[in-house]
Amino acid sequence: MFNWLFDLFIGLPNWAEVVSFIGFLVVGIVFLVKGADYFVDSASSLAKILGVSTLIIGLTIVSFGTSAPEASVSIFSQINNSSDISLGNVVGSNIFNTLVVLGMSAIYAPIIIHYRLVKREIPFMIVMTLILFFMALFFDFNGSNALLQIEGAILLILFIGYLYMNYRNAKQGEEVVIDIDDDVDVMPLKQSIFYLLIGLVMIIAGGEFVVHGAKNTALQIGVSETMVGLTVVAIGTSLPELVTSVVAARKNENDIALGNVIGSNIFNILFILGIGSSIGVMTISMYAIYDFLILIAVTGIITFIIFYYKKIGKRSGYIFILSYVAYITFVVLREIL
Questions:
Q1: What whole-number distance in Å separates Cα of residue 169 and Cα of residue 81?
Q2: 107 vs 193: CA distance, rounded Å
Q3: Neighbouring C-beta atoms of residue 50, cutoff 10 Å
Q4: Partner residues linked to 112 by β-bridges
Q5: To which H or E segment does residue 198 belong?
Q6: Each residue's pLDDT tens digit in the chain (337 positions)?
Q7: Nearest Cα to Cα of residue 192 among 83, 41, 24
Q8: Calpha distance 159→276 (Å, rounded)
Q9: CA-to-CA distance for 231 and 165, rounded, in angstroms?
Q10: What is the dihedral of CA 198, 201, 207, 210, to 10 degrees?
Q11: β-bridge partners, 141
Q12: Which of 11, 165, 216, 301 is 20 to 30 A (C-alpha) from 112?
């Protein structure tokens, strides 16, 4: 869609091309984050005007809006034959969510674990992570590990089942993991539609900018697309979750942080990789398999802390942050050695 714009920067000196690629990457991340913000606010306002329940808003608009950056990047990565960015973005985002988002939230105040999360949502997240890993490990395409289109369809079916599970439980009076804001600011109808369209355009443009910038930056400076996806892209597209959770923690509502992270991680696995691999076969490098194992280990450790201590305290928060620094250091060293 924006090839005409990208073509304007072809033929520049190498240093200028690198600067332009990094510029597209940064602008794309800003567009994604701000576009998702516009989209959620305007769509929630529009739904209120049309009389749609807050339950439906939470299950659809809010859940999509907070993960729209990852979804946009994944889709455009597949369209541009950059599976490494798409997969790295999801795995990196889930690791970032688990270690940094929960870590930052716990530093503000302890995260108290609700029985409902322990009983249903956390086991579901673990099972989905393991299913994704086994799909990636035991299926191949032309001799390479891959997520096939049939696997993408299975992930999407599981996602629909997850939404239905939340809907059914909410109808029975149980709280939904995905945060629902009952105090939605209602804008005039025309303003709601305008900002909804602006948000969608920014999300689409941001996704294409990020993929173009990340892919070409990796090529120019000699690093892999996987590394760029795991680090810069994953962190950038996870900013909505980080901001939401930290703001909630500062308001002493940081139990929202855990629900936000669990819901986002499940959404990333089922919907985003489901959409991505349904578009086309998503090849998986051996490095990505190692990152899957790290994600499983991180998820397992967090689960142990949750089940054993029934809360995530400040000390655990600092350990999570340091663990993420160690992981990023590992990714960088793996790339340059």
A1: 39
A2: 39
A3: 9
A4: 311
A5: helix 189-221
A6: 677 788 888 888 888 988 999 999 999 888 988 887 887 788 778 777 877 665 556 556 666 666 778 888 888 888 888 888 888 889 999 999 999 989 998 888 888 777 666 677 888 899 999 999 999 888 777 778 889 999 999 999 999 998 888 777 767 655 544 444 445 567 888 888 898 889 888 888 888 898 888 888 887 888 888 888 888 888 888 877 787 677 667 767 666 667 778 888 898 999 999 998 998 888 888 888 899 999 999 999 888 888 888 888 899 999 999 999 999 999 989 888 7
A7: 41
A8: 14
A9: 32
A10: -70
A11: 144
A12: 165
Q: Is the distance from CB of 70 to CB of 93 less than 8 angstroms? A: yes
288: buried, middle or exposed (CB in 10 Å: 19+, 13-18, 0-12)?
A: buried
Q: Among residues 104, 65, 31, which one has the least CA distance to residue 264? A: 65
For the chain, the first-to-last Cα distance in angstroms comes to 37
CATH code for position 196? 1.20.1420.30
Domain residues for the domain of 175 are 3-336
- Between strands 111-112 and 140-141, the pairing is unpaired
CA dihedral sign, ordered 67, 136, 332, 105: positive
Please give the full DSSP string across 65-103, using - where no structure is assigned: HHHHHHHHHHHHHHHTT-HHHHHHHHHHHHHHIIIIIHH
Work out the burial of residue 334: count CB atoms within 10 Å of its CB; fewer than 13 is exposed, 13-18 middle, 19 or more buried: middle
Partner residues linked to 312 by β-bridges: 111
Distance CA(333)–CA(149), nearest Å, equals: 33
Length in residues, the chain: 337
Based on its alpha-carbon atoms, the radius of gyration of the chain, rounded to whole angstroms, reads 19
CA distances from 236 to 88, 129, 179, 244 (A): 13, 22, 21, 14
| pTM for this model (two decimals) | 0.83
- Please state, in angstroms and rounded to a whole number, the distance separating the CA atoms of residues 172 and 166: 10
Instruction: Tell me the one-letter amino acid at 265.
Output: N
- DSSP bridge partners of 147: 282
- DSSP β-ladder status, 311-312 and 282-283: unpaired
- Block residue for tokens 């701000």: 34
- Total domains, the chain: 1
